Amino acid sequence: MNHLMSSYKIGNLELKNRIVMSPMCQYSAVKKDGMPTDWHLHHYTTRAVGGVGLIIVEMTNIEEDGRISDFCLGLWSDAHRDAFKPIVDQAHKHGAKIGIQIAHAGRKAEDTDSPISASPIAYDETFKKPYEASESDIKRLVIGYQDAARRAVEAGFDVIELHGAHGYLIHQFLSPYTNQRQDRYGEERTLFAVEVIKAMKAVMPTDMPLIMRISAMEYVEEGYELTDAVAFSRTLKEAGVDLFDVSSGGEGKPSSTRFQKPYAGYQVPFARKIRQEIGVPVMAVGMLENPEIANAAIRSNDADLVAIGRGLLSHPYWTFSAATQLNLDMHVPKQYEQATF
Ligand SMILES: Cc1cc2nc3c(=O)[nH]c(=O)nc-3n(C[C@H](O)[C@H](O)[C@H](O)COP(=O)(O)O)c2cc1C
User: Fold this and answer.
1) 256: which residues sit within 8 A by CB, 6+ positions away?
2) Which end of the chain has fewer CB atoms surrounding its CB within 10 Å, N or C?
3) 101 in ligand 1 pocket by Cβ < 6 Å?
4) Smallest CA separation from ligand 1 atom 13, residue
5) How many helices (H) and strands (E) does the chain have?
6) C-beta of residue 167 within 8 angstroms of C-beta of residue 108
7) Nearest Cα to 47, choosing from 17, 77, 16, 21?
8) 277, 254 contact by CB (below 8 A)
9) Cα(118)–Cα(131) distance, rounded to whole angstroms?
10) Model confidence over 218-234: pLDDT tens digits?
């Protein structure tokens, strides 16, 4: 029976366990230039030393104006690609696989003067009103995602995650709440994502998996339902997504009737539904730092992988503690053998 520490293989990606470090913005790039710093090198290397199977580097954006803040990472030049190489090399040296989350913040880009989106609707009154992407903007954006994917491959990343969740640009196109276009990108709300996925896959090695993070539920009053997410995920899978990282929300202010207070594993049922209905591998995420609950998601085949976010910020060696608590075998670096986890 599979468990948290069992190995996992998808395409050419072989993981030593099912534990993924969830992408988490550090807002620690050099102001404006989007370059990773020493902080990123140490932050990610520490989690590799700490035994996670796969690290997913935080939201890394395809253009300068596509970032939440001026301190967010970018991959819009070959200089960025080269700056990520030491992080990739250190992760590998310490036994982890490493991916990167490629993104564009769209209308949630806070530090740009002119954010772009599917439709000219501001997130709320504190955000700038975005301009509606024209067909030529869309072509430019698709190429931006593709170029970022190519650079990620060249930097040596093992896998790419496309950010299609949390109210960022791709999610803005997928959602009827933020996509009110009258053209073909409005009639077929998956079209932008499909074009991005195909463009990225065209520059990725054929056996390198593409992960996509989606919001399986929206929490605004007019938001889409899990059944809608199942339907659009089917289309995205056909376009080339190999594994879904199943999150939720982020599109706007949650409605009190649709959004319950999160509890341990609250998004696991969304992951299970997508896995069962579409027959696609999934990663579950969200308050899974209790090892019993994370392990149960794998053992019960609700998910193929589990992503840990805040649990790995507070406990970089969470993986060792989880293995100890679950009484599962785990390789601990020899330097730490005398430690108690
Ligand atoms: C500081 C911080 C930064 C985050 N940045 C990102 C991000 O860059 N991309 C993303 O998809 N999710 C991001 N998230 C969401 C996490 O990846 C994760 O889905 C969420 O924290 C729930 O998991 P957890 O309960 O294990 O923390 C962030 C969360 C935190 C706490």
Assistant:
1) none
2) N
3) yes
4) 24
5) 11, 13
6) yes
7) 21
8) no
9) 8
10) 999 999 999 999 999 99
Name, in order, each residue with C-beta under 8 angstroms of 316's C-beta and a sequence gap of 6 or more.
46, 47, 49, 50
Residue 213, ligand 1, Cβ within 6 A: yes
In the reported structure, the alpha carbon of residue 334 is separated from the centroid of ligand 1 by a whole-number distance in angstroms of 31
Q: Which two tokens stand for residue 188?
A: 């077929």
CA angle 314, 266, 193 (to 5 degrees): 95
pLDDT band at 180 (very low <50, low <70, confident <90, very high): very high
Ligand 1 in contact with 26 (CB < 6 A)?
no
pLDDT tens profile 43-63? 999 999 999 999 999 999 999
**DSSP-derived 3-state class of residue 201:** helix
pLDDT confidence of residue 32: 86
Alpha-carbon gap, residue 54 to 202, rounded angstroms: 23
From 20, 24, 212, 248, give the residue whose CB has the most ligand 1 atoms within 8 Å, as the site to mutate: 24
CB of residue 267 inside a 6 A radius of ligand 1: no
Residues 72, 126: contact at Cβ < 8 Å? no
| Cross-strand pairs, 10 | 13
Please give the torsion angle defined by the CA atoms of residues 322, 326, 330 and 333, in that order, rounded to the nearest 10 degrees. Answer: 40
- Indicate which residue's Cα is closest to atom 14 of ligand 1: 24
Residue with tokens 């075998």: 329
Atom number of ligand 1 nearest to Cα 163: 11
Q: Are strands 116-117 and 282-285 parallel, antiparallel or unpaired?
A: unpaired
Structure-token pair, residue 283: 């990663």
Atom of ligand 1 nearest to the CA of 262: 25
Kindly list the structural domains of the chain, giving each domain's residue range(s) and its CATH number in brackets, ordered by start: 8-329 (3.20.20.70)
